[in-house]
Design a protein that fits this description.
The chain is α/β, with parallel strands linked by helices. It has a single domain, classed as TIM Barrel (Alpha-Beta Barrel). It contains ten helices and nine strands. The strands form two sheets. It has a seven-stranded parallel beta sheet with strand order 3-4-5-6-7-8-9, covered by helices on one side. Strands 1-2 form a two-stranded antiparallel ribbon. Helix 4 packs across helix 5. Keywords: Oxidoreductase. This is Aldo/keto reductase. It holds the Pfam family Aldo_ket_red.
Length: 328
């Protein structure tokens, strides 16, 4: 697995890293044994960097990572997030120093570590100046609790404001072949300020794979159940593009998921995608995506199959987008 530099931190992380939201059951039931098998597969593939949050399963994802590291006597590089108030109305955030400190310390305890490599503010508290929040994160860094600082789902303008206070190491926003919003300034801004851009959901929440999903069978707890892109007629319209992408991948001996991740990697050397899975088998389908290099003809064909704006439906429902900073 190739590596890439994490912002200004001096740390090198695996070019493809693992998102651990699925460990908490966002897309279906899972258990600790399955999570451990997935983490074993990640290590085998050369993945060194994990992404989690105190919100995922109300700490369950972090707890399982901590248990794995203790059981296997192995230490991953870890990014986690805080700032969303669990149990409050959706979109409620608290970015005050006391709240973030409490949540960070609880995350460290669950993970069984004295520091994490990267800590993100999961969602902005819009009434609190981002400059103040950045100062809080820099304080945590000075105290040795974190090695690098970041923000999730923020705008390019907010990022530039934060960068005036101190070095921002990473920004995590949704980005994939069907969610292209970060191309409207965020990826470029990250490059300008020396931050790593971390695309989450680079597999389009599972649609950019070799197996058809069954939205009619999604559990009520599945995030996609009420997501516009997985509701008809949008889902069928989107699958027409996905099936063409599958044909493209198959003709070249690649998995569709590997193509989707390679596509994100090749949008810039400062991108570190974090595909998520709870399955070791699924992980191995895309673990070698950093080895794929597209030709000019490949890029032209990908542009034809999935042109800008091809996805039918919003990336979030009105309820799901609450708390996300919009900039277009």
């Amino acid at each position: 697995m190739k590596t890439r530099r994490l912002g200004h931190s001096g740390l090198d992380v695996s070019a493809i890293s693992l998102g651990c939201m699925s460990f908490a059951g966002f897309y279906g039931a899972t258990d600790q044994d399955e999570a451990f098998a997935t983490l074993d597969a990640a290590r085998e593939a050369g993945i060194t960097f994990l992404d989690t949050s105190d919100l995922y399963g109300q700490g369950l994802s972090e707890t399982w990572i901590g248990a794995y590291q203790k059981d296997r006597k192995y230490r991953f590089q870890i990014a986690t997030k805080g700032g969303i108030v669990a149990g409050a109305p959706r979109g409620t955030a608290d970015n005050s120093e006391p709240y973030l400190r409490e949540k960070l310390e609880a995350s460290l305890d669950r993970l069984g570590v004295d520091h994490v490599e990267l800590y993100y503010v999961h969602r902005r508290e819009f009434s609190r100046p981002i400059e103040e929040v950045t100062e809080t994160l820099l304080k945590f860094k000075q105290e040795g609790l974190i090695r690098a600082i970041g923000f999730s789902e923020i705008s390019p303008a907010s990022l530039r404001r934060a960068a005036q206070v101190g070095p921002i190491d990473a920004v995590q926003n949704e980005y994939s072949m069907w969610t292209r919003l970060p191309e409207l300034g965020l990826i470029e801004t990250c490059a300008d300020i020396g931050a790593t851009f971390v695309p989450f959901s680079p597999l389009g929440r599972g649609i950019l794979g070799d197996t058809d999903l069954s939205p009619s069978n999604f559990k009520d707890t599945d995030f996609r159940k009420n997501n516009p892109r997985f509701i008809e007629p949008n889902y069928s319209a989107n699958m027409k593009h996905v099936r063409e992408l599958r044909d493209f991948a198959e003709a070249r001996g690649w998995s569709t998921a590997a193509v989707a991740i390679a596509w994100t990697l090749q949008q810039g050397k400062h991108l570190v995608p974090i595909p998520g899975t709870r399955s070791a088998d699924h992980l191995m389908e895309w673990a070698d995506a950093d080895e794929i290099i597209f030709s000019k003809a490949d890029w032209a064909e990908l542009g034809r199959i999935m042109p800008l704006g091809w996805a039918h439906g919003d990336r979030y429902s009105d309820a799901q987008i609450v708390g996300v900073e919009r900039y277009c």
